Amino acid sequence: MTRIHVRQPGFQSTVQDLGRPGYGHLGISAAGAADPLSLRIGNLLVGNPEGAAAIEMTLTGGSFEFDGVAVVAFAGSDFGVPVWESFEVRAGQAVTCGATRSGARCYLCVRGGIDVPPVLGSRSTQLTAGLGCALKAGDVLPVGSGGAVSAPRRFGPKLLHSILPGRSIRVTAGPQSERFSDGFFQSAFLVSRNSNRMGLRLEGPCVEQRERAQLLTEGAALGAIQIPPDGQPIILFVEHQTTGGYPKIANIIAADLHRIGQLRPRDEVRFELVSMEQARALLLRQEQYLASSSIR
Question: Are the CB atoms for 39 and 33 separated by under 8 Å?
Answer without folding.
Answer: yes
